[in-house]
Design brief:
The protein contains 8 helices and no strands. It has helices spanning 5-24, 27-41, 51-68, 82-86, 94-107, 112-123, 128-135, 139-159.
């Protein structure tokens, strides 16, 4: 575990940026979210016992709050190379890139809490208790959110487009 704020930022910035990018769908907004969170984290550093989960929750809350701002209304679907640019790449990725882009488009149809739950489960590999802690809800709510999100994602995939009433709720 990092002992200093600087060490934490140096070792976890890439991971936090990838998480924020998966949530927002926009690497530039993700950088802003992570930087805002890290700025607010600095004065509190000495009083935080488990910085990893704490910062992940801060990023999630910041993602929720930017969605409430009038200046930002839609999730911007990123160019195909966004996640490749911030993560290691190996081999031929053409099929994986197409798959990832399609999944990012489907994720953008989900309400923000469902999207966060899915990203935490399948991208961050968190269990129900960790997701509940980040989202500030019960584990049964996490399971419900993920179940609804997966049903919506299946419907979007089946129909090849947006599900009625879901457009712009990402």
């Amino acid at each position: 575990m990092p002992t200093s704020y600087t060490e934490f930022v140096e070792t976890r910035f890439g991971e936090l940026s990838r998480y924020a990018t998966a949530l927002t769908g926009d690497p530039h907004l993700a950088q802003d979210v992570v930087q805002d969170v890290l700025i607010r984290l600095r004065p509190r550093w000495g009083s935080i016992d488990a910085p990893g989960p704490y910062v992940r929750r801060m990023i999630t809350n910041e993602y929720f709050s930017w969605r409430r701002r009038r200046s930002v209304r839609d999730v911007v679907l990123s160019p195909p190379d966004v996640l490749t640019d911030i993560g290691p790449a190996t081999g031929d990725f053409s099929a994986q890139i197409d798959e990832r882009d399609a999944m990012m488009a489907r994720l953008s149809t989900l309400p923000r809490k469902q999207r966060a739950a899915v990203v935490l489960r399948y991208y961050e590999n968190c269990d129900d208790a960790e997701i509940a802690a980040v989202l500030g809800c019960r584990t049964s709510t996490v399971r419900s959110q993920i179940s609804r999100a997966l049903a919506t994602l299946r419907e979007v995939e089946r129909t090849g487009g947006l599900v009625a009433g879901r457009e712009g709720t990402a």
